Amino acid sequence: MRDTAHSVRPLIDAARQRDSLAIERLLQTGAHIDARDPDGRTALHHAVAGGDAATAACLLAYGANHALGDRTGHGALDPERIDVEVLHAVRQRYHRFRRSDEPQRAGWSRAAEWAADVSRRGIVKVAQYVEPDELQLMRREFAAFARNLGSRIVRGDAVKRNYFEEEHWWPRDRAFVTNNAFKYSTQLVRFSRRPELLEAARLYLGRPPAIERALALRYLAAATTDSNMFTWHHDLEDRRFKVMILLSDVGPEDQHMSYVCGSQALFHPYRMFLENSCPLDYCRAQLGTIEIYDATGTAGDVFLFDSNGAHRGIRRDTGRVRDVYLVELNASAPKIWGGDVDRRVVAETRLTPDPFARFLAAEKLWELPAERRPPSWVAGLRNVDAWLDRWTPS
Length: 394
Hints:
Blueprint: H1 5-16, H2 20-28, H3 43-49, H4 53-61, H5 84-96, H6 109-121, E1 123-126, H7 132-155, E2 167-170, E3 175-178, H8 181-184, H9 186-192, H10 195-205, E4 210-219, E5 241-246, E6 257-260, H11 280-287, E7 292-295, E8 302-306, E9 311-313, E10 322-330, H12 343-346, H13 357-361, H14 376-379, H15 384-387
Antiparallel strand pairs: 1-8, 2-3, 3-4, 4-10, 5-8, 5-10, 6-7, 6-9
Helix pairs in contact: 1-2, 1-3, 3-4, 4-5, 6-10
């Protein structure tokens, strides 16, 4: 049975007019999101047919049924009829969409400022956010990681084999790496549960964040290299909130990270998710002009950034050793790395929803068969349900 023209027309008209703001107002006042016209088409059908990925993303975020067939039996995102670039465009915008009825929590003005800065520039520095006593403990815990890996290097069993290893030594890049930083640092676990920090991530992502991974990295002095992370690149998750903690001072002549401001807002074509190169010429063509921000500072400074933006590590053979912790958060991560976390520390504070819930339940990625490849959603893009996760405002 088709809906009446009176009930259908406003939502369908808004979709035809590419007016996502009007659609949000209609849905928030009770419009039937899956109402169909005489041909059985929903507002989502019309948005996709019109090539309006932003409006399609809005409708999906409010719960539109993409599989509901029109009179020919085809859903709005039927992979047999929709080009992969269109699906990719919808997916990117869906995962960056923020509902206008998302509640704003009182008392977190700094979190709102940080989220706004990341939205505007892609990166923000929070000077001396780690207290001196906390920093001292983090450094001590980091030193335990460095000693452990250093002993393995001496034994000759630490050289990198693949990206997903628990920890390794990169001879070419002269880097110590662990993908299991929580194993060494209970203080990093506590830091990652700061409500103010999580609120900034929630506001930026538009949904409650989940911990993906925690890394500890030591970069020894090294010459410039053309390996992936030291050339301009973006991450492959559309929208990710990263937290970088400086454990050592990093000056302009040291080994810092550089970031192209504003590039986090770019919607990359599908091919750029098959590899993660994001060259400056591409950014300049999209942005017009570019501003490069160098993440320098003193131990205890924290950087919040979206690694969908173009960034790279700078290597200098005369630069000082750089020690950092990195925590990655996302609202729709296709993979959670898992790891060793002291559950007693997690239990010290009750958070709802808990950003560690999926992390604690996940298999450790380095214990699974290793294969360096793009995220699973790239190959499975035509399986809409594989990347379409539902959420409600928290």
